[in-house]
């Protein structure tokens, strides 16, 4: 008798930027206490999971050559974590995961975390699990600080190491231009550089997140532009001084403001509207300050099945 093989499942998952990122003290577990406002963008990855006799990962698209395809890929760790959670232990789970990447690798936009979140959502459907997004978020938090946000998307306040989330009301679609750098930056290295800068002096810190939350509720991009702030920016610029030029070039091209996304090196530029974003993108692409430029809008939802039912 032929075994019934379930059809492959594809999940689309957003990238994120941090509209506000306040980095607190280094904790004993090696993480820093954060207060951050995450914002999910329409720059996405697509992840397909399928039952297969030859388990493994394939990667196509943005940065495909530099993404690990072995057990150290966060998406594969997501496969193992979900298999463990539902008692499918014992040997490698018989699934193939195909990552189609639009999110830059090691770019500060949580692309690896997005793929892990999408894998959890995809497998929950492929394996027909009776499991909701909140249960997946518990597994997600163990995989990485940014994985839970990729499940929910939208705009959210993150605390702890970034994994504790509360939704933030955002009344408006904001338009962004993203500038990808030639090479990625290692997140632990950027946090380490901030610790070093703070040990040497006292670099200015971003203030409270409250005004950012108010600006999001008002929906006025000009108000929000004045409030973008990221404690990791000084560290990313210290490691990659050319980013200062990129940030300036975006504002010279007509953006309302620019910020480093997460630990960088991607720069995110807030624009007045969709038309302005296209104009800023065109000018920035010609300025020779980055590898490539994308436009995106936010907020958008978290990891979602493409053309199918969704999780409870
Ligand atoms: O959680 P995730 O694996 O994405 O974190 C990658 C690295 O970034 C950590 O190992 C740590 O060095 C740094 N990090 C941190 N504080 C956080 C989040 C990440 O120091 N809140």
Short summary:
By secondary structure, the chain is an alpha+beta fold. 33% of the residues lie in helices and 28% in strands. The strands form two sheets. Strands 1, 2, 3, 4, 5, 6, 8 and 12 form an eight-stranded mixed beta sheet that branches. Strands 9-10-7-11 form a four-stranded antiparallel beta sheet, with helices on one face.
What is the topology?
Elements: E1 9-26, E2 32-51, E3 56-61, H1 74-85, E4 95-101, H2 111-126, H3 133-143, H4 147-152, E5 155-160, E6 164-167, E7 174-180, H5 187-200, H6 210-218, H7 221-225, E8 229-230, H8 233-239, H9 243-252, E9 257-260, E10 267-271, H10 274-285, E11 292-298, E12 304-305
Parallel strand pairs: 1-8, 3-4
Antiparallel strand pairs: 1-2, 1-12, 2-4, 2-5, 5-6, 7-10, 7-11, 9-10
The structure holds cytidine-5'-monophosphate.
Cytidine-5'-monophosphate is lined by residues 30-32, 34, 144-146, 161-162, 187-188, 191.
The fold-level CATH name of the largest domain is Ribosomal Protein S5, domain 2
Low-confidence stretches: none
Structural class: alpha+beta
Question: What series of H and E elements makes up the topology?
Answer: EEEHEHHHEEEHHHEHHEEHEE
Strand content: 25-35%
How many separate helices?
10
Architecture per CATH nomenclature, i.e. the level-2 architecture of the largest domain: 2-Layer Sandwich
Please tell me the total number of domains.
Answer: 2
> What is the gyration radius calculated from CA atoms?
19 Å
